[in-house]
Design goal:
Domain ABC transporter (chain B): 3-239, 255-498
Protein name (chain B): ABC transporter
Distance between the termini of chain A: 45 Å
Strand order of the largest sheet of chain B: 6-7-8-3-9-10
CATH class of the largest domain in chain B: Alpha Beta
CATH architecture of the largest domain in chain B: 3-Layer(aba) Sandwich
Shape of chain B: globular
Strand order of the largest sheet of chain A: 4-3-5
Strand content of chain A: 5-15%
Bound molecules: adenosine-5'-triphosphate, magnesium ion
Strand content of chain B: 15-25%
Keywords (chain B): ATP-binding, Nucleotide-binding
Oligomer: heterodimer
Region (Disordered) (chain B): 496-515
Radius of gyration of chain B: 24 Å
Structural class of chain B: alpha/beta
Radius of gyration of chain A: 25 Å
Order of helices and strands of chain A: EEHEEHHEHHHHHEHEHHHHHHH
Number of helices of chain A: 16
Number of domains of chain A: 2
Pfam family, one (chain B): ABC_tran
């Protein structure tokens, strides 16, 4: 939705005498969509956060009594907060309208502040309306990270292969294959490390299939990916029901990675548990994100990978081996996704269960797009998705007035809104999805 | 450095694109390759650059035989190539593009772009390139992108530089600058291979001229030879280099554009209140430096761009109609970029020839296609327009550049046109075919169709136009008679209207000037 108006830059009226060297005239193109959306959300805030506030207070705890540094709880009265936030949101929406009238678009900070306030309003409202009106904020965030870790591994796999020009829909299958083999190998050998290695190998094997069909035999990459997902889901489910379930103590009770708590640092409120109380896989995840970011944007390897994903023919004409680069990246991606799979059975759950990845591979793919094919961006996108998933769990425990079915939709709803709405015109690697054939 | 090709043969299936060709290129020389569309020039250069494996023959560098399995090896041997379609990564900066494949690194493979930037600045200063190493390639005009390609070759110390139709996309000023650059390279001892269909340039720059015809080397020519001599050697017959046309038989003004405005997403007026009309039997040429709104103007007429104002054809408003409806109304349209907008590269020549009428008799109807009719129509068109192809079933992408252009022209120049619009109608086409295509356009005019030609090529504008509209910054800054001097047009293209004195002929007052 947009309207235009002319700014009288150049002289109006009859064409001017020679020479005419002024710049072309510029009109303001007004995009009304954003302020309208803001206004609608402000109205939602009025109807829900302000008018249906429970009247109780929502309590956000930050530190436990055992913590070294103690930060007092934050107590927020729901009615006051609901009205304050609604007024602020309305003010921002009006500001948005004014901005569009003046310059055509809403500035980024308005939308960002608006989104943060809206989330805060929602939290206060939903916690205040629950049976238990106290929530442990540090735990909420730490839990989000735990849920996000496999997503982050998955999205790094996506970034690796898409940056080289191969669309990886098979992340789901790679995660699941990793989870399964980690569980079985871990149980049989009794070693977490053997489990992890097996998961990596399984992820790579799925990738080999993807790479060979997509790169060598030029089969449509999306189709290969979908087929691989179905294949892995079928195979692991079959083996689970025929072999694992009847013999779960020997084959499906893997050992687990212990948390390594770094003294003192882990006691820092909010960020302590996230950064300094993780398993080896958790720490490894941070390392991989950083390494991949530096690798892609600051090394020779990354420059070549990105070139292959953008314009393989140009890369070829400067002597870069396109096919080999693609193989290597797809296989590396499989290895990383395998680790993410291992996280399911060697860290977060006690054992393997049928289709336990439950679509996380696809959410990881959404994180890749939302993060604009940048490892850091994908990392934060995955955190957001982890956070919404955790909200769903925490709110179910607190007992909220919102139907649980709706809460279960939350992560997916946020994914759809984010990918469809917020990303805007995001541009992925230009050659992703198209095979490279040399004449 | 001396580079020799001996008996190079390249076959695509049963078709011989290069037939035992011998060619020697020496440092300090500009060696031009002339030849019709499809003669095998690009193929030969791709063999030389390691992109194609020759079927037979050998390549010698300083007397030693070499084999290139890929362009990487050719580059290491000192051969650089600027392709007809640039091989640059649009989202990378200039420095990243130059570094790619030949990166300098610090410890742990960390990129060191600083040394690449320094080299770019050195080369830039030496040759007067004015290239900013940190600019994004997609933001650069084609002329500058081409310099980036040349820098890529120079950074790798190329001593043979191949330029395949480097001037096809350049403005006259950019072309002159490029020729200067080539002269400087030559004086520094680089061997340059230069391919162009523009004989004036070839004569101006060459030390030696070799002529290819239908895959064979037919001889060499002296740069001092006449343009018509060169053309005859290329085509194998005499070619008229200047189009002759009779005075126009003007009819009614059936096509008119008034107050047309096209905005960019950011609100820049790409086309700014443009008005003009074209009469039946008249050719209006829209001249101007690339990027002054010509593309958006034609796209708005075709319904490919949102626009405000009015476009009337035969008394009916066509602004706001879909492209399909506009085509149905009898408009033939040749887009400026054949490879992205004009053709479907993987479709056959025949399919491409019916893209604008696949659902109309005789080639098909609403539900089905008639392969036999498509085939016979295609064969007739291919013969008529002299498209050099081994068959109408081949993917159009395998045709040479100029032959692809002829396919688009053959599709759009059909009977019963109410309006014919062509952007860059002869881009990349050889002199013989230009003669033919220009004749066809004039025949279309003489059959009473209003014709609009958009061209950045002054020669073409002057050859065809009955009237010339010059666009600058989205506006038509004047409409002048077809015999206006090159100098006056040049000034207008730079945004300078030719003074305030009234024109000599009263009936040519710029009726399209915005008021
Ligand atoms: N990959 C291919 N497969 C089959 N035929 C091809 C292929 N590439 C080129 N040809 C054919 O080889 C011939 C020579 O093509 P080439 O591109 O070398 O011509 P050119 O001299 O560069 O012409 P132009 O001036 O139009 O660019 C053409 O007839 C073309 O159809
Ligand atoms: Mg060519």
């Amino acid at each position: 939705m947009s309207t235009t108006a002319t700014v009288p830059h150049g002289p109006a009226g009859p064409a001017p005498a020679a020479p005419t060297t002024e710049r072309p005239t510029t009109d303001i193109v007004r995009h009304w969509t954003t302020p309208i959306a803001l206004a609608v959300l402000a109205a939602v805030s009025l109807a829900v956060f302000a008018l249906t506030a429970s009247g109780k207070s929502a309590t956000f705890r930050i530190s436990t009594d055992a913590d070294a540094i103690h930060i007092p709880d934050i107590v927020v009265p729901t009615i006051a907060a609901g009205w304050t936030i609604t007024l602020l949101l309305a003010a921002l929406a009006v500001w948005g309208f004014l901005q569009v009238r003046r310059s055509g678009t809403v500035s980024g900070w308005v939308s960002a502040v608006f989104a943060a306030l809206f989330v805060a309003g929602f939290l206060v409202w939903v916690v205040g309306a629950a049976n238990t009106t106290t929530v442990f904020l540090t735990g909420l965030i730490a839990g989000s990270v735990t849920l996000a870790i496999p997503l982050i591994f998955g999205s790094m796999a996506g970034v690796l292969s898409e940056r080289a020009g191969v669309v990886n829909i098979a992340i789901e299958g790679q995660l699941l294959a990793g989870a399964f083999t980690a569980a079985v190998t871990g149980s049989v050998t009794g070693s977490v490390w053997a489990g992890l290695v097996a998961a990596v190998v399984a992820g790579v094997l799925v990738s080999v299939l993807l790479a060979v069909f997509a790169i060598r035999y030029l089969v449509n990459q999306i189709i290969v990916g979908v087929v691989l997902n179905v294949l892995v889901a079928g195979l692991t489910s079959f083996l689970f029901s025929t072999v694992l379930s009847s013999n779960s103590s020997a084959l499906n009770s893997p050992p687990h990675f212990p948390s390594i708590r770094i003294p003192f640092l882990a006691d820092i409120p909010i960020i302590g548990p996230i950064l300094f109380d993780q398993t080896i896989l958790g720490y490894g995840m941070y390392l991989i994100v950083i390494a991949l970011y530096i690798g892609l944007f600051h090394t020779k390897w990354g420059l070549r990978v990105r070139a292959v994903g953008e314009h393989p023919k140009a890369a070829d004409t400067v002597g870069i081996n396109v096919i080999r680069t693609r193989y290597i990246n797809v296989l590396l991606g499989g290895a990383v996704a395998g680790m993410g799979g291992a996280f399911f059975t060697l860290v977060s759950s006690s054992s393997f269960s049928k289709e336990m990845t439950a679509g996380q591979g696809f959410i990881a793919l959404a994180a890749v797009i939302f993060g604009r094919w940048n490892p850091i961006g994908a990392f934060f996108a995955a955190l957001l998705f982890g956070f919404t998933t955790n909200m769903q769990y925490v709110l179910a425990i607190l007992g909220t007035p919102v139907p649980s079915q709706f809460m279960a939709m939350l992560p997916y709803l946020v994914t759809v809104l984010v990918v469809a709405g917020l990303v805007g015109r995001s541009r992925g690697p230009a050659a992703a999805g198209s095979p490279y054939v040399k004449e | 450095m001396k580079l020799e090709l001996r008996g190079i043969t390249k076959k695509f299936g049963a078709f011989t694109a290069n037939d035992s060709i011998d060619l020697t290129v020496e440092s300090g020389q500009v060696h031009s390759l002339l030849g019709e569309n499809g003669a095998g020039k690009s193929t030969l250069m791709n063999v030389l650059f390691g992109l194609y494996e020759p079927t037979a023959g050998e390549i010698l560098v300083d007397g030693r035989p070499v084999r290139f399995s890929g362009p990487g090896e050719a580059m290491r041997a000192g051969i650089g190539m600027v392709h007809q379609h640039f091989m640059l990564i649009p989202v990378f900066t200039v420095a990243e593009n130059v570094a790619l494949g030949d990166e300098h690194t610090r410890a742990a493979g960390i990129l060191d772009l600083e040394s690449t930037r320094r080299k770019i600045r050195e080369i830039s200063d030496e040759y007067g390139f004015h290239v900013d190493p940190d600019a994004l390639v997609e933001d650069l005009p084609v002329g500058v992108q081409q310099r980036v390609e040349i820098i890529k070759a120079l950074v790798r110390e190329a001593r043979v530089l191949i330029l395949d139709e480097p001037t096809a996309v350049l403005t006259p000023q950019e072309t002159d600058e490029l020729l200067d650059i080539i002269r400087r390279l030559r004086d520094n001892g680089t061997a340059v291979v230069f391919i162009s269909h523009k004989l004036r340039e070839v004569k101006a720059i060459s030390t030696v001229i070799s002529v290819l015809r239908r895959g064979r080397m037919v001889g060499t020519a002296d740069p001092d030879a006449d343009q018509s001599e060169l053309a005859a050697l290329m085509v194998g017959r005499a070619v008229g280099l200047n189009t002759t046309k009779s005075a126009p038989q003007l009819g009614e003004e059936t096509f008119s554009v008034s107050d047309l405005t096209v905005l960019s997403p950011e609100g820049v007026r790409l086309v700014d209140r443009v008005s003009f009309g074209i009469r039946q039997g008249e050719i209006l040429a829209v001249a101007g430096v690339q990027g002054n709104g010509q593309t958006e103007l034609t796209e708005a007429i075709m319904g490919l761009q949102k626009a405000q104002g009015s476009i009337r054809l035969d008394g009916e408003e066509i602004l706001g109609r879909t492209t399909r409806q506009v085509i149905r109304a009898g408009v033939g349209y040749v887009p400026e970029d054949r490879s992205t907008d004009g053709l479907v590269g993987s479709f056959s020549v025949a399919e491409n020839l019916v893209l604008n009428r696949f659902d109309r008799a005789p080639v098909g109807n609403r539900f089905q296609l008639s392969p036999a009719a498509i085939r016979s129509l295609a064969e007739q068109r291919v013969t008529e327009f002299d498209v050099r192809t081994q068959g109408v079933d081949l993917p159009v992408g395998t045709l040479s550049g100029g032959n692809q252009q002829k396919v688009v022209m053959a599709r759009e120049l059909v009977d019963d046109l109410k309006l014919f619009i062509a952007s860059q109608p002869t881009r990349g086409v050889d002199v013989g075919s230009i003669e033919f295509l220009h004749d066809r356009i004039i025949r279309e005019r003489d059959s009473g169709t209003p014709v609009m030609i958009v061209s950045t090529e002054l020669d073409e504008v002057l050859d065809l136009a009955d009237r010339i509209a010059v666009m600058y910054h989205g506006r038509i800054i004047g409409i002048v008679p077809g015999d206006t001097s090159r100098d006056d047009l040049g000034l207008m293209m730079a945004g300078i209207t030719p003074g305030t004195e009234p024109d000599t002929t009263p009936d040519t007052t710029p009726k399209g000037a915005t008021a």
